[in-house]
Amino acid sequence: MSTKTTWAIDPAHSEIGFKVKHMMFTNVSGNFTQFDATVETESDSFDNAKFSFKGVTDSITTGNKDRDAHLLSPDFFDAGTFPEITFTSTGFSKINEGEFELTGDLTLHGITKPVQLNTEFGGLAKDPWGNTKAGFSLTGKINRKDWGLNWNSALETGGVLVGEEIKLNFELQFIKQ
């Protein structure tokens, strides 16, 4: 019988980031500042690990107050109605040494859809206080319209103001409990 280990997120050393095209030619970056995540494992190799994540929608920041307010409005995330974004893994499979594919269900804007994230396992290390830490870099892409985030504005030159593809970029550090 195997023993389950829980790993808690270290929010001071983790980032939940995204990028989206603006006016078809530049990226706008943002992140969520309030989130929680855990991983359940049966070994330090993280084989078959179970990941879960919860983010506070109104903690979004892009460095621009007006844009952030628009993102929280019913045009986009509708944070008043949908205060959380969640992810629950359905699979974590090894591709190569240190490379995994994380699959799971992302709930955003009241809609749950499957997503796939490329995951790099950075390994394990002890910090100066004796805590065992694990590091992960996750990347992926989603189409915001799949979650009902449909607002846009046409440009006079053709094209649209906000791209549909959202690039996800997460740097996660977990502490063994």
From TrEMBL:
Annotated InterPro entries: Lipid/polyisoprenoid-bd_YceI, TTHA0802/YceI-like_sf
Domain Lipid/polyisoprenoid-binding YceI-like: 6-175
Superkingdom, taxonomy of origin: Bacteria
Protein name: Lipid/polyisoprenoid-binding YceI-like domain-containing protein
SUPFAM superfamilies named among the record's database cross-references: YceI-like
